[in-house]
Amino acid sequence: MDTDKLDSRKMAILNAIIRNYLETGEPVGSRTISKFTDLSLSSATIRNEMADLEELGYLVQPHTSAGRIPSDKGYRLYVDKMMEEKVEEVNNMKEVLDQKADRIENLLKKVAKLLAVNTNYASMITTPKYRSRKLKFIQLTNVDDTHLLAIIFLEGNIPKNKVIDADHRYEESVLLKLNIVLNSLLQDLDLEEINMSIIQKIKEQAGEDSALIGRVLDAIGEAIREEDNIEVYTSGATNILNYPELSSDDGAKRLLYTLEDKQELAELVDDKLTSESGERTGTKGDIQVYIGNETPIDSMKNCSVVTATYEIEEGVYGKVGIIGPKRMDYDKVVGTLKTLMTQLDEIFKKK
Amino acid sequence: MDTDKLDSRKMAILNAIIRNYLETGEPVGSRTISKFTDLSLSSATIRNEMADLEELGYLVQPHTSAGRIPSDKGYRLYVDKMMEEKVEEVNNMKEVLDQKADRIENLLKKVAKLLAVNTNYASMITTPKYRSRKLKFIQLTNVDDTHLLAIIFLEGNIPKNKVIDADHRYEESVLLKLNIVLNSLLQDLDLEEINMSIIQKIKEQAGEDSALIGRVLDAIGEAIREEDNIEVYTSGATNILNYPELSSDDGAKRLLYTLEDKQELAELVDDKLTSESGERTGTKGDIQVYIGNETPIDSMKNCSVVTATYEIEEGVYGKVGIIGPKRMDYDKVVGTLKTLMTQLDEIFKKK
DNA sequence: TGTTAGCACTCAAATCGGTAGAGTGCTAAC
DNA sequence: GTTAGCACTCTACCGATTTGAGTGCTAACA
């Protein structure tokens, strides 16, 4: 595909067409543009240019004798151009987010909701992904006669609780001993590093209480695996019903299903994809824009997805995204995401 | 409204009409019934009876010269009749639920999904509601130089973690002392019972570390309030798009929004409602059925909602519900919910 | 050579009329 | 009390026609 530069007039016309289409959602005709822009060109001239633009692949005609609408390629150009310009307009998201959201989970849900409400599109956000979670420390405590509580503290200051069945009540001194054994041998290890040799060693040192050790290790494994699981939160799914071009046929059904099911959404954050997208989208900064077929998810072929990567600490990142119609207000969405990123950054740093 | 008993023939006809409508979703005419039942009556006779039934309020005609469809009152009669009959057909839900679902949260989500998949309607489930949560014990632990972990154990074996900012590292012996003070004074208290006098006492005993106490108490308050919050999980919301009578107009939009927002759903479990419903729905056992206008939620006026109450332990209960079109398969839904209840019961008992 | 006016042409969407079919209500006969 | 028959009603559907927005092309103009 030829990457020929468009002359500035073509550029202006394309711009005007896209802008207009973003607003109305209707195919836009030559006459509209002739009046809409200050180029003071007649509709006939515009028509010629439009024909050119169509030939170059930036515009599409839904059918003969309808106006033009931007193709994916047209959107792409528009978005790329737009991304180069400064986007700034800090709004007061921070206020909402700042109130102590203790659990990261709640914070993320709040972010998703905020985005959906602000943009009127659907939004999603994933929990941050650690390479592989390590154990920071573990502590066993008596709960009652038949239960112990294992507090499992993972790298990244994540506490996890696991209640463990016990056949009898353990003396405090025994628990103390076990705590010391477990911590001295397991500290800073991840799942791969906890092997049979280490397990054996622990059991030896635990002596008569080695029966318990198995259950404790299970709990640790569970905790780490639980935390490794990337969760996806969505919000504003119903917003997409406001866009007729998405809610026709059963497109809406499939899209809503995807958003509810969430499984497929994980693909959007797949490492492979992220790296690829760097080249493909040619974006600047953290923001990626997938237009139509560029998204890997089938039910979103008629949508655009704008994602951003947030970093919670060195090397630990998650993704947040907005899903809307192709004619979404990219300008606003990108702006919103950018300010969100800086504000999240501040929040995480402060912690 | 006259609660006149219907003679058995009218009853049979009404039954046949409803059954047929449940299947097809189309208004049903006299001719259909004449053949459908084994009453061997001509369509004309049926017509007469239908006219009577309409006059009594059990049937409705969408427009002249269309067949009849059941009114809310008609459904009500049908459902009440049905509930008296035995419903039994245990399927294998238990298998799915039995695998160790450690956190109740996950179990509930799984239940919701299971219901939605099994019935093809939307489902919801709430977290169980405790009267008022009491503190069982609390324990402070060092995390690193600037953070403490408070493990807050609530009545009902619910562990909660709160990370607390600290201005310096506390000696183990200090923490031990604080733990003892906190537990001796706060054990078995709920939020109301923790008053200024007690707080004062704690601070006195804590001496120079009283600055920390405020933050610890905040954490406790948060933990209890968090747990008091009833959460609602939903599943299968998109299923409702399969029923044209619900997805017409913007009814689907509003309904889906309700399901996503969840706030309004809490009304369904409101104490007030639950007690009222006992009389209103006249159901048997644990199952409540709300038909059309009987539901308190506006966006569900065209739906039916079937709810059941599960009990996790003495006095601690939650609600699970199924939302579908009025012409839902009540028989199956009620059956499914009933077996689910018994199976949940077993799971909770075993724990 | 680029721009514009004019005109014929195309196509989706809205409008209108007519028909078919399902179903009812009523009456008269059994 | 039941049934057959018939006139009537109303929706859904089909097809033809119209409307209007928009295009492409050509010819004239600066």
Strand and helix layout:
Two copies of one chain form a homodimer.
Chain A: H1 8-24, H2 30-36, H3 43-55, E1 59-60, E2 69-70, H4 72-84, H5 93-98, H6 104-119, E3 122-126, E4 135-144, E5 147-154, E6 158-165, H7 172-186, H8 196-206, H9 210-228, E7 232-235, H10 244-247, H11 251-261, H12 271-281, E8 288-291, E9 303-313, E10 316-325, H13 330-350
Helix pairs in contact in A: 2-3, 7-8
The structure holds a DNA duplex (30 and 30 nucleotides).
Q: Can you offer a commentary on this structure?
A:
- With 351 residues, the first copy, chain A, is of the alpha+beta class.
- The first copy, chain A, has helices at 8-24, 30-36, 43-55, 72-84, 93-98, 104-119, 172-186, 196-206, 210-228, 244-247, 251-261, 271-281, 330-350, and strands at 59-60, 69-70, 122-126, 135-144, 147-154, 158-165, 232-235, 288-291, 303-313, 316-325.
- In chain A, the strands form 3 sheets. Chain A has a 5-stranded antiparallel β-sheet with strand order 7-3-10-9-8. The first copy, chain A, has a 3-stranded antiparallel β-sheet with strand order 4-5-6.
- In chain A, a hairpin with a 2-residue loop joins strand 9 (303-313) and strand 10 (316-325).
- The radius of gyration of chain A is 27 Å and the shape is elongated.
- The two termini of chain A are 49 Å apart.
- Chain A binds chain B through residues 102, 136, 139, 141, 143, 147, 149, 151, 153, 157, 159-163, 222, 235-238, 241-242, 250, 252-253, 256-257, 260, and chain B through 102, 136, 139, 141, 143, 147, 149, 151, 153, 157, 159-163, 222, 235-238, 241-242, 250, 252-253, 256-257, 260.
- The structure holds a DNA duplex (30 and 30 nucleotides).
